[in-house]
């Protein structure tokens, strides 16, 4: 069975390793097919492709889009699309603008809590306003001595319902999925169990995703209890969706996650990566 990892991050978003270093690490762990799926940006793609060519690893074009479905943020992994297609640039430009806006609003809310300098601090870690993710703000809060660890930053300030939570104005699910499909790619719903939806709401999300052109959902990922993975496999099967797999590697921010390391897809699944095998 080839080692395939279709979800990972680099310094182009909130990972700790440069794109080439991510690909080299994956190659070292025996990964033969991968996609670098940074949040809302293609900034790491060229470097990842070059590293893959050098190391003999197949690197698909990838991105993880932040999208809105009925007021809920959902993540869609786009794979193997044409990054030059004219639907992609405007989508990413809107996402970049929203990331920068949201970071400023989060910083303003933190300032109201007496914590100043979060925007500048997170910007120094991220390198550009449109790259700032809540992971960077959490890391800055740790470095500033405000919280003990990133999890506490989410629990005390950044998480849903907390004082510095900001409702995101991400583009709608349907438009984001359509852009991936129009540009010749495959849209995969990321980590469906993380949205904390009941089974009815999850079925509605999957139906909306499929209606928009989505073809697969992530089933195998690290630290997912076996029972949960089996349930996701059945859900995908019932929804008529193929199954994907990926580590969601970030490097240092999540040291317990490793490239290429997650359980094998249950036999019931139709693997999305068969298209590239
Ligand atoms: P953003 O896309 O800027 O909202 O940031 C999302 C990133 O923050 C995710 O990729 C996770 O790495 C991290 N994250 C989100 N929620 C939590 C949480 N409750 N605890 C720790 N990290 C989180
Ligand atoms: Mn992330
Ligand atoms: Mn995600
Ligand atoms: Mn991710």
List the helices and strands and how they pair.
Layout lengths: L2 E3 L13 H10 L2 E5 L9 H11 L2 E3 L1 E8 L2 E8 L8 H25 L5 H9 L7 H10 L6 H9 L14 H10 L3 E4 L9 H13 L4 E5 L5 H14 L2 E4 L32
Parallel strand pairs: 1-2, 2-3, 6-7, 7-8
Antiparallel strand pairs: 4-5, 5-6
Helix pairs in contact: 1-2, 4-5, 5-6
Keywords:
alpha/beta; 40% helix; five-stranded mixed β-sheet; 277 residues; single chain; binds adenosine monophosphate; binds manganese (II) ion
Description:
The protein has 277 residues and is α/β, with parallel strands linked by helices. The protein has 9 helices and 8 strands. The strands form 2 sheets. A 5-stranded mixed beta sheet has the order 4-5-6-7-8. It has a 3-stranded parallel beta sheet with strand order 1-2-3. Bound molecules: adenosine monophosphate and manganese (II) ion (MN) (3 copies). The site of adenosine monophosphate has 11 residues, from helix 5 and helix 6.
């Amino acid at each position: 069975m080839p080692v395939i990892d279709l979800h990972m991050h680099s310094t182009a978003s909130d990972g700790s390793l440069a794109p080439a270093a991510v690909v080299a690490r994956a190659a070292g762990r025996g990964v033969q097919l991968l996609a670098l799926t940074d949040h809302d940006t293609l900034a790491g793609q060229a470097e990842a492709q070059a590293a893959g060519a050098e190391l003999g690893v197949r690197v698909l074009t990838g991105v993880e889009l932040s999208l809105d479905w009925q007021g809920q943020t959902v993540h869609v992994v786009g794979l193997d699309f044409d990054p030059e297609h004219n639907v992609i640039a405007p989508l990413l430009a809107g996402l970049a603008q929203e990331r920068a806006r949201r970071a400023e609003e989060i910083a303003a809310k933190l300032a109201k809590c007496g914590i100043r300098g979060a925007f500048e601090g997170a910007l120094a870690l991220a390198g550009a306003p449109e790259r700032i993710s809540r992971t960077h703000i959490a890391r800055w809060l740790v470095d500033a001595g405000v919280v003990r660890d990133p999890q506490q930053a989410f629990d005390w300030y950044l998480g849903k319902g907390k004082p510095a939570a900001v409702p995101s104005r991400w583009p709608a699910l349907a438009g984001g999925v359509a852009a991936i499909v129009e540009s010749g790619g495959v849209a995969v719903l990321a980590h469906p169990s993380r949205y904390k939806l009941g089974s009815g709401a999850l079925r509605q999300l999957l139906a909306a995703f499929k209606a928009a052109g989505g073809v697969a959902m992530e089933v195998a990922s690290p630290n997912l209890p076996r029972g949960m993975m089996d349930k996701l496999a059945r859900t995908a099967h019932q929804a008529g969706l193929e199954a994907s797999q990926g580590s969601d590697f970030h490097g240092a921010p999540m040291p317990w996650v490793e490239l290429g390391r997650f359980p094998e897809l249950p036999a019931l699944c139709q693997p999305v990566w068969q298209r590239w095998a």
